[in-house]
Design a protein that fits this description.
One of its GO terms (biological process) is DNA transposition. InterPro entries: InsA_N_dom_Znf, Transposase_27_IS1. It comes from Aliterella atlantica CENA595. This protein has about 100 residues and is α+β, with helices and mostly antiparallel strands. The chain has two domains: about 1-40, no CATH class; about 45-85. The chain is about 35% helix and about 15% strand. Strands 1-2-3 form a three-stranded antiparallel sheet, with no helix packed on it. The longest helix has 14 residues, at about 70-85. The protein is elongated and about 75 Å long.
Length: about 100
């Protein structure tokens, strides 16, 4: 078995997930992973759809149902978007004619 990040073979058993699958840890880079993981990262197309649905002001529960993501992941995604938005607005003076 190789580390998915650095391809090292220095792998040790590192407990279990809450689903009962064995967890492993790479001693070279510290990456933790599960062999044959069933959960995959959310695709960019799904993230773009979520962004569009958020602009339509749909409820988070509805967005989670439509896209198939968990409500917990969606809430963390929305919080991350919120903290990345700038909090100040720059206003420029308009030139007065006449």
């Amino acid at each position: 078995m190789n580390c998915p990040k650095c391809q090292s073979t220095q792998i040790i058993k590192y407990g279990h997930t809450h689903y009962g699958k064995p967890r492993f840890r790479c001693q070279a880079c510290g990456r933790q992973f599960v062999e044959d993981a069933t959960r995959q990262p959310i695709e960019d197309a799904t993230r773009q759809l979520i962004d569009k649905l958020l602009l339509e002001r749909l409820a988070l529960a509805a967005i989670a149902r439509v896209t198939g993501v968990s409500q917990r992941w969606l809430q963390m995604y929305v919080n991350q978007k919120f903290y990345q938005t700038p909090k100040t607005i720059e206003v420029t003076q308009k030139n007065q004619v006449g």
